[in-house]
Design brief:
The protein is built from 14 helices and 21 strands. It has a ten-stranded mixed beta sheet with strand order 8-7-9-6-10-11-12-13-14-15, with helices on both faces. Strands 16-17-21-18-19-20 form a six-stranded mixed beta sheet, sandwiched between helices. Strands 3-2-1-4-5 form a five-stranded parallel beta sheet, sandwiched between helices. α5 packs across α8.
């Protein structure tokens, strides 16, 4: 696969967050890019505005028969007629991980893997490198709020890549610096067992290049089996780690803290993003930036300017009366971190969470964990399961989680969400999930932006 001479590329699943980053890579090089996706989204509209041709019907008559390369996401079912047609006609058909492998073959690669935390950490590393003038190419699994992009290019032969464990695609990457944030059970529809998930992450570290560095969270499962010629262990606040945060203070929805690493200290760091887990992600990013030799003041300035990632502890409303946070959390541990952090930042507000379970298999495998994490809220609304690539599984539904939650809970249909928000008080409101729950972001934001002020004025009148 010679990417340098390709003139036309076709994507099946072009609207996926990882696929769209690669589509943008080709588009910026002047390659003709077109593709299919199941539904139109804000992201696919952006791609179309950038000149890519996209359709939303699985129809062989609409695909690009002149394409020299076809890229597909493993989330596309094998029964997809366009995918079948390209295979039958002998086109070069590859997964997005194959393209990433080829793109990064001759670059200094910084990859970020882990069952959670990888999007924020990779975006923050890429932002620091861009903001400080160090430079990098970025292939991210989320939309950077600073740049409204999940991809950018640079003449610097350095790439920051979110290493996705789904379908084992991250095992095709061979990093110079590999960050590892978490090894929890997930994607059991792919791996089967938690042990197989762990084996994959161990293999991820075996792929680190000679003289490369592993930057890993202290306390991971089977840490003694992780590879890499050089190791840096990081943690939120454990002084046994090589690098950790200290003197943490919450301020204005963000944090002030110091970072200590052996004989080095970076003091008075301001992170304007909520969530204590994001302090830990920042510690990992600082470890990478310091490893690359970036100056202290430049690192601090970049972090202070970090606006986060869309749908990662994203404040859509934040005023004296109302806080609305939207997050991509779709794993029990992600929900636990999200709700715990939000409650710590806004301790006196009633916390209501609207959650959309993602995948039948994940709901089946982690129903107890979801219920335990969601019980940290004061009240829970559950949408029906978002199936994504899966067919229904008999007996698996949102009620599996609801009946295990210890706080007031109801399963709510999509058409009832906005009427519920209009009719109820939610001083700290959180939407979470990886499906199409993001369709409620803007209308809920509009309702809640004025609701708290109106309610507060009504209280004053009553008084």
């Amino acid at each position: 696969m010679d990417l340098n001479n390709i003139k036309r590329v076709y994507f099946i699943g072009i609207g996926g967050i990882g696929m769209s980053a690669i589509a943008r890579f080709f588009n910026e090089k002047g390659v003709h890019v077109s593709g299919y996706d199941r539904t139109e989204t804000a992201l696919t509209r952006q791609l179309a505005e950038e000149g890519m041709q996209i359709h939303y019907t699985d129809d062989v008559a609409l695909l690009d028969k002149q394409a020299e390369l076809v890229v597909y996401t493993p989330a596309i079912p094998g029964s997809h007629s366009e995918l079948i047609w390209f295979h039958q006609q002998g086109y070069e058909v590859v997964k997005r991980s194959d393209v990433l492998q080829e793109i990064t073959r001759n670059l200094y690669a910084i990859t970020v893997g882990g069952t959670h935390g990888k999007t924020t950490t990779s975006t923050l590393i890429a932002h620091i490198l861009r903001h400080t003038g160090y430079g990098c190419n970025a292939f991210l699994g989320g939309i950077s709020a600073n740049y409204d992009r999940n991809f950018w290019s640079s003449s610097k032969q350095v790439a920051v890549i979110e290493a996705d464990e789904y379908d084992r695609s991250f095992l095709k990457l061979h990093p110079d610096v590999a960050v590892l944030t978490a090894i929890d059970a997930d994607h059991l529809d792919i791996y089967g067992t938690e042990e197989e998930v762990q084996e994959a992450f161990i293999q991820y570290t075996r792929n680190i290049k000679a003289n490369g560095t592993l930057v890993a969270k202290l306390g991971l499962h089977r840490a003694d089996e992780l590879k890499g010629d050089n190791h840096i262990w990081y943690h939120l606040n454990d002084s046994k780690a090589d690098i950790h945060a200290t003197n943490i203070q919450a301020t204005e929805g963000g944090y002030m803290f110091d970072v200590l690493q052996k004989d080095w200290k970076l003091a008075n760091i301001y992170l304007p993003v909520g969530g204590t887990h994001n302090i830990e992600n920042t510690v990992a990013a600082i470890a990478v930036a310091h490893l690359l030799g970036i100056e202290d003041d430049k690192i601090k300035a970049a972090i202070a300017d970090f606006k986060g990632i869309k749908r990662r502890f994203e404040y859509l409303v934040k005023n004296d009366y109302q806080v609305y946070i939207d997050d991509y959390a779709h794993h029990p541990e992600e929900l636990r971190a999200l709700i715990t952090s939000a409650r710590a930042l806004f301790p006196d507000r009633k916390c209501i969470v609207l959650f959309q379970p993602h995948l039948y298999t994940r709901t089946r495998d982690f129903a107890d964990g979801f219920a335990e994490s969601l019980s940290l809220a004061d009240e829970v609304l559950l949408l029906p399961i978002y199936p994504a690539r899966e067919l229904p599984i008999e007996g698996v539904h949102s009620e599996m989680i609801a009946k295990k939650i210890s706080k007031p809970v109801q399963v709510i249909q999509k058409e009832d969400v906005l009427p519920w928000i209009k009719a109820n008080s939610a001083p700290l409101f959180i939407t979470a999930g990886a499906g199409d729950i993001d369709q409620f972001r803007e209308p809920a934001q509009e309702i809640l932006n004025g609701k708290g002020i109106i309610d507060n004025e009504e209280v004053k009148k009553d008084a």
